[in-house]
Design brief:
It holds the Pfam family Ribul_P_3_epim. This protein is of the alpha/beta class and about 220 residues long. It contains eight helices and eight strands, in the order E-H-E-H-E-H-E-H-E-E-H-E-H-E-H-H. It has an eight-stranded parallel sheet with strand order 1-8-7-6-5-4-3-2. Helix 3 links the parallel strand 3 and strand 4. It is globular. It binds 5-O-phosphono-D-xylulose and fe (ii) ion.
Length: about 220
């Protein structure tokens, strides 16, 4: 299956959000990546329900919601009601991760778990079969426009090997510092979905950059 591209609206122009959403609607992108930050789990605050509901009103593609918040359980149903298709919680923010994943599924969404750069993928072994997606953070969460951490490539390879036996359908998403230069290596390492903020919205033509990212021919790269 062709890899998925999820432009991160964190890098969009919030004063022209509808324009940027419509650009993504008409592009080769697959999902909208929606970064929710609470100022507690991460040292930054992005936006909450009113903005997400406004995004949902205009978006014609699924919302891939990345919750960088403590106590995500408290808000699963509200994020589902606000239009999330995928809800990803952080491993580091969940005491009862299995229960949280069940709650995401009960709310009718795909369930994802995100790992900070320091968190080993092996910690997901006993829950991998219950997940739809694992999001491997390739920067420390909290900000767009950061530099890609190269160790991510090892983590992706390890996760791909684990998923081959435990959950072959798993979507392996990578988030942070992804661009046209490292995308090929990331595909080869096993990632199947790519978040990109700066690489898209700071490009001369964001829509063309989405097409370049989407159509990078992984077939020409030896997987
Ligand atoms: O979750 C996050 C940051 O915490 C990301 O989704 C960023 O928004 C990605 O931005 P770039 O690194 O691609 O600019
Ligand atoms: Fe994100």
């Amino acid at each position: 299956m062709k890899h998925l591209i999820a432009p991160s609206l964190l890098a969009a122009d919030f004063a022209n959000l509808q324009r940027d959403i419509e650009m993504v609607n008409s592009s080769d992108a697959d999902w909208f990546h929606v970064d929710v930050m609470d100022g507690v789990f991460v040292p930054n605050i992005s936006f909450g329900f009113p903005v997400m509901e406004a995004i949902k009103k205009h978006a014609t593609k699924p919302l891939d919601v990345h919750l960088m918040i403590v106590n995500p359980d408290q808000y699963i149903e509200r994020f589902a009601a606000a239009g999330a298709s995928v809800i990803t919680v952080h491993y580091e923010a969940c005491t009862h991760l299995h229960r949280t994943v069940q709650a995401i599924h009960a709310a009718g969404c795909k369930a994802g778990v995100a790992l900070n750069p320091h968190t080993p993928v092996t910690l997901l072994k006993d829950i991998l079969a219950d997940l739809d997606l694992v999001l491997v953070m390739s920067v420390n969460p909290g900000f767009g426009g950061q530099k890609f951490i190269p160790n991510t490539l090892h983590k992706l390879r390890e996760l791909k090997a684990m998923a081959a036996t435990l959950n072959p359908e798993l979507i392996i998403e990578v988030d942070g510092g992804v661009d046209i230069h490292n995308l090929g290596d990331l595909i080869q390492a096993g990632a199947t979905a790519f978040v990109a903020g700066n690489a898209i919205f700071a490009a001369t033509s964001p829509k063309e950059m989405i097409s370049e990212l989407k159509n990078l021919n992984a077939g020409l790269l030896k997987v």
